[in-house]
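Appendix C reproduces, verbatim, an entry submitted by the partner laboratory led by Prof. M.T., so that reviewers can inspect both the input and the predicted structure.
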Amino acid sequence: MTPVLGGRRELRASLLIGLCCLLVYNANGRAISAGDAFPARYLPFAIWRYHSVLLDPIATLTAQGRGNAAFWMVHVPGGHTISLYPVVLPVLIAPLYLPVAGYLHLRGWTDGRLDHIARIMEKLSASLVAALSAALLYLLLRRRAAAAAALLLTFAYAFGTTTWVIGSQALWQHGMAELLVIGALLLLTAPCTAPRALAAGLLCGLIAGNRPPDVILAAALGAYGLFWAGRRAALLVAAAALPTGLVLLYNLGVAGNLAGGYGRVGKASFLQHDLLSGLGGLLFSPTRGLLVFSPFLLFLVLVWRYLPRERGERGLTLAMSAGIVLQLVLYAKADWRGGISWGPRYMTDLLPLLVWMLVPVAAALRGFGRVCFLFAVGAAVAIEAIGAFWYTGVTDSAIFAVTSGPHQMRAAWDWRNAPFIASLQHGLAPAELTIEMRGHFDAIEAGGQEVVAAGWALAGHATPWQVAILIDGRQSVGSRTFLDRPDVRGALHEASPAGWRIPLGTAGLAPGEHVLVFFASASKNGEGYYLGERKLTVQPASTAAAGGEDLDDGFRTAAARLRAHQQGPGYWLTAYTAAARFQEPRQEMNTYLTALLLDLLDPLAASGGLGDSLQRARQHLTGQIEANGLVRYHGLPDAPGIGTLGCAITPDADDTALVWRLAPGRDRRRLPAALATLDRYRTGEGLYRTWLAPRAAYQCLDPGSDPDPADIGIQMHVLLLLAQVQPPAGRALCEDLRKVVDQDRVWVYYRMAPLVPILRLSDLQRAGCELKLPESRMRTQVPGQEIWVSLVRLLGRAQTPAGPPAGAAEIQAVLRQLAQEDFALLRKNPPLLYHNDLTATTPRYYWSEDVGYALWLRLAHEYAHPPHLHPNG
């Protein structure tokens, strides 16, 4: 290797490169952060004020209103809270925070002021670390290349890789990893001296401590370092042991685990992914592929033509190559998507090594090859620029819509989900970093069954775009209406309306303590800023409903909960679990549940005060009908909830039939096309299949042994539609359905959940199809579901004059049991509506508390208004 280049010309060029990078990295006026970076954002303030690396004194602020859902925080024995991630990064950057710590000491350590400064300091610190790495990389590359080639590769590194959108935009561990690796290479490519051996060892130890997977890189560089240091190898080892020992001391003494926070939450399945598909994803996927986001690195395939001749350089190249390969294997065995983040985040730490190895290739390129290389660098810079100015993380949600199963990674290979394509559809991200969000959650004003949350908020000197209250991390209620607050105007001398009031219906909340978190947004596409939280205790509702004499309180409570749980666009959310018990439910949006609730509640539109809710639900469902007349389970493929509450799934017969029957809208011109598609997917025995697409075109599906079954519930819903629009086809389906009603192959989605098929019997009877289900199909083996089977059977008897009438005492007993203790039984074990194909890879069971309230209301309604007293009802 060449001697150290320390001339003033190189140093000036390095300084200018660093300054240029610093300006560009901050030009977007915003940070691109995530929960992974929150501990590093706030820990330097805990270090300066509380002299602690624990999150205890700043836990509320670090959690950002997420409570126990804040995955970046770990609770350890002794009642302490620590960062999930190593604390090397926040400790190393803590000196940069001394001036702002002094400023806060003078002005006051309020949460709002600290949060505002912390966001700015996160961006400035991250951009400074990334800019410094680029400046030092130029000096490193000058040891192998002329100034022009070194400058080109430094430019490619700084602006054509995730150094820009990951390393410089937030306090991920990756930016510091790049800086430490480049620092180590600067030392290892210079003649060995005792100070350099100590410094190289120290940096290798820090590389390993900063990000545990980088132990591989530290070991590779350290192995070469032993060869490089020669008789000073002991100094290198001793220096590396110092930070390593401190990190282990923290892990064992504070976290109580050798692996630190990771060890307390790690999963055995983390490294159980397929190796080859993982390598493909890391390198070539359109959403995370290193060679897609930084295509100039494709030229590394030519490195073999320019292998170094000098022994020391060959040894370093060999060590680097081993580290790169092992790191690739490690991440390929993990979930290579790397969470909500920009591009190939996991590959960021390798970039200094890859660029170093690319030097002889870039220096040797001529003519067409050089043009291609420059074009690849330009494409990489354009991709990263889109990330810096457009990307917000919203587009990544589609990549994680499928949480398990054989198709879990499919969305990550869809070019439509590539963030540099999808982000452009959302417009430029707002430059809000310097806007100070101020506000206060003043009070919760009680008044009967409704409370009002009140406070004020300002985005800089202006009224915010929106304020929102998040209830228990589940239900969000927002407002864009702001009032004049004379007290705020007088105290802050701000003329913009700042006051807000958000009504909260307590009838929709279960008894007990609830956490209300206050967020404010400066603009439509901007980040929600956490500004405070309060606790609300809801007292149990009157027990009059449990007494049996008066069900009015239960009726009002159930109706209020349905109104409260309905989301703004008009739909209700469905809970799903991985087992046939209501534990650890997750939520999704689907058209099926909203249609089912609309069908159940329509007779109560006036008496239950649900008219407005049902109209919004109907409008939402109508809006899900696509140009071809079909409807998807998760709704429109470009809806806002796709990626977070569902995925772009294949259209299906069930939801198409439900929506066209219940919410067709005024324009029925698309109905013939939908009916024609349904007819194409009939089986030879006259039944209708589930999915309305060929197998090769399935999206977001984990089918079972029959990839397109003709399920009993789907036949019922299609039949109810056909009875309206094509009566002969409906009668034919009824006859065909009678022949197979007890065959296992048609009980696909309701085998363990018979509620909906039982519920539909009376609907079919009114439509002219007398269908009887075998008694064995009308039972449940799922604990706690017996009362729901009893309820729907009672409801069927109450709705149908024929057969044994439902006795008043029997109906009252069920209503009383469910309404006791403010519907406690319903909330703990709501109705199990259906499940996925039990032969599929990943089991799913779908539940709905709201259907429980709807069934209760409907039975209470039928009890008060039995059909035999209302012949036209």
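The longest strand covers residues 437-447. Additional entries are available on request from the coordinating office.
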